[in-house]
Amino acid sequence: MSKLPVVAIVGRPNVGKSTLFNRLVGKKLALVDDRPGVTRDRREGDASLIGLDFRIIDTAGYEDHDAQTLPGRMRQQTEAAVGQADVALFLFDARAGIVPLDEEIARWLRTADVPVVLVANKAEGRAGNDGVLESLALGFGDPVELSAEHGEGMGDLFEALLPLLEGKDEVPEEQPDNEYEGPLKLAIVGRPNAGKSTLVNRILGEDRMITGPEAGITRDSISVDYDWHPTGGESRKVRLIDTAGMRKRAKVQDKLEKMSVEDALHAVDFAEVVVLLLDATLGLEAQDLRIADKVLQEGRALVIALNKWDIAESASSLFNGVKRALEDGLSQVKGVTVMTVSGATGKGIDQLLQACFDTRDAWSKRVGTGELNRWFERAIEATPPPAPGGKRIKMRYVTQVKTRPPSFVIFGTRVDQLPASYERYLVNSMRKDLGFGAVPVRLMFRAPKNPYDDNRGGGGGY
């Protein structure tokens, strides 16, 4: 799996770099104060902007000082950050306008081998209009106008970054799309006593986990690395995570059990694929659907496994009943893979592991722009979007902004008026025609900015 692209925020002191950094990472990681020079070391974090993921670096304010002084060493840190970046965000204060230090930073950035996006911060209202006009003389084109403090203009920043970052996190073309560094991160979850630890022991071929008839033996989430040797294939690495059983929230009163359940939920966050293990002798219960829904909400790939299949009664009707219940209970995702296994005998384990690798492939899939938009045209032609109030909704194009889970943005006019039923149609069509199967798919919408309207368009998530 390749690394995220890197974006560095640069600018003179006190123009709002740390505020923008916190906005993009979604947490107050960087200290923010009205005094200049609060940031000294460069700080890094994982940023997400309308589904576009990248590594963001907050840098110290750029100042012209001797390299031996503290401000000079801070400047060297900023220069090092730009040296490793794929894109530099050059931030200036629109209200203060362009000052000589901004011009010096611009001269330096023109010599750096990195694309530059000029950003006018504090541009809310009209107070920054003059500064925006002055910035055109810097030679970086029209600035992106935003307010890092209030979150305005983030959609415009997304549109500026997308063409510069799109594809930066793709697997190199000479490698197959289903090859990734590191093991398959596979978490086994379910209600207490479903046989999770017994299954993990059978996969490993040793009594690595304590098992027994009592429910709730496992408390901590235990991670174990394993080399899987499929019949007739090459060895593949798996990181197995056994978790504590998750009972209905209302029944969890003991503090230790609460901590165990929280630990299991963290394991879901860490995993790539999650196997929800059901006890075939008990069938599907409401708590199983709650766990499955939690996994899908976290954007993880899901596989259902019916354990204790060797002692299940009326196997065929049980299997079909579980499939039907899943179709009804997980309406947001149709066709989740359902496998049958036995932790006691080992039957079905190779097939389960293969299904997990296949599911990760779909979860990690990136579709080329041409293929994606050909599908888009066919889908719209087959079922055109509705026209609420007689006004046509026009969808122009779609782009994939990330994988794991696959996430897409559709651009068009009045897309905020699309009904949920049409969004479901697009997602289901995408799963069927583009090979995403039953993995979570994120679909967002973006309308272009209307220069005659203060409302800059909207976007949604699916």
From TrEMBL:
CDD domains noted in UniProt: EngA1, EngA2
Residue stretches making up the EngA-type G domain: 5-169, 184-364
SUPFAM superfamilies recorded: P-loop containing nucleoside triphosphate hydrolases (SSF52540)
GO molecular function, one term: GTP binding
One Pfam family, short name: KH_dom-like
Binding-site residues, GTP 2: 190-197, 242-246, 307-310
Keyword vocabulary terms for this entry: GTP-binding, Nucleotide-binding, Repeat, Ribosome biogenesis
Binding-site positions, GTP 1: 11-18, 58-62, 121-124
Family listed: Belongs to the TRAFAC class TrmE-Era-EngA-EngB-Septin-like GTPase superfamily. EngA (Der) GTPase family.
Function: GTPase that plays an essential role in the late steps of ribosome biogenesis.
Protein name: GTPase Der
Organism name: Sphingomonas aerolata
